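Q: Give me the 3D complex with shikimate-3-phosphate.
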Amino acid sequence: MRIRVPGDKSLTQRALILASLAQGRSRLSGLLSGGDASSTAGALRALGADIGDVPSDGGEMLVEGRGLSGFRSPDNALDLGNSGTGTRLLLGALAGSGVRATLTGDQSLRARPMARVTQPLSVMGARMAFLDRDDRLPVEVRGTRPLRPLRWDSPVASAQVKSALLLAGLTGGAFVIVTEPRRSRDHTERLFNRVGAPVVSHAMEGRWQVELRDPPARIDPLDFRVPGDPSSAAFFGALAAAGGAESSLEIEGVGLNPTRTAFLDVLRRMGAEIATEVDDAAAPEPVGTLRVAPSGLRAVDVGDDEVSGLIDEIPLVAVLATRASGVTRITGARELRHKESDRIVALVENLRLLGGKVEELDDGLMVEGSEGPLSGRVRTHGDHRIAMAFGVLGALPGNRIVVDDPAAADVSFPGFWELLGRVAGVSRT
Ligand code: S3P
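A: Here is the predicted complex, encoded as structure tokens.
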């Protein structure tokens, strides 16, 4: 069976932001629609960008960029819904604009840390004020231009932090060098290079360093087809690997950026048969087909060095571990506590209530595999990836799992449940 998944959430939001800041007309397609993408598009519109509704069929969308200083102060607070990427990247872009704006979001987003971004942006000269609680939305930004140059050693490997600082350097006309403890996804770097804002990156004294040394006065429009989201493809890869789909599943048009594919290495170590074929390795992003065949799964160790490359796929590793022989140990993943929910708690609680054997660690969890059926009603905590990971587990033969809030999936994967029914249904008839 062959399927496709919706456009990449990270790339969609970056493409919308860069297209709004470009000089001229950008041509985008394959965008994720709904959920996080509409939150970011709506915020950009309120800032004066010429952005219509994101097409729901992956069709072409034109964005008329207003230039690096084209934003205006919005009348009302910008509601970023559930989107951490939209919030943190816009905080960066706004820091270097002359705009005053308040950013807020839903309950899950208002519980997530923001000082990791506002602190370095304040060092650059932007004014950032938390209006309610320290380190949490809502936050008021007063941007200024030019910003001061920045050298920043981020304590966490975070593409959102790195991207916010690069965007501030771009709009604020300031040199930015940021290091991170491990390399996080590099989409911003690739798209910056594509629009004429040169970014280089390299290993440096055991850390990863990214440099925007010479921010341009204007950027070119973007002509870009967003690939399918590898993190969305991962749900179906996992389903197929664990025998929940027909013998082999092909996912076409999916992003295969090497900073996003560590999950495939983990699945291979668990025993899955996986092949990838890149159709277009050309810049800015590699795209291709992923093929997964079912096989018996065994437990795996996932540690510090690997986690940043599969941070969004750890819930899937944990649920698959219940179907693998042996004890799976996931460590070095403390960042999971700051995602759309505390994913360590959400995984441990839900796996336990389903009858799984699991132990919470400060920076991860341990899961023992078994063959017994798992059943019960899981709580998503408003987290799309928790909803979908348990959706996959529930679709495996023998399990009966009810997800309390299936609509949570919509922020990154509209149509997830229909596709799951179609792919998993095939193996049951
Ligand atoms: C994202 C980066 C990741 C990831 C998130 C999207 C991005 O977070 O979890 O879903 O688009 O930059 P980090 O900031 O922890 O890397």
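A quick observation: The chain has two domains: 2-221, 230-424.
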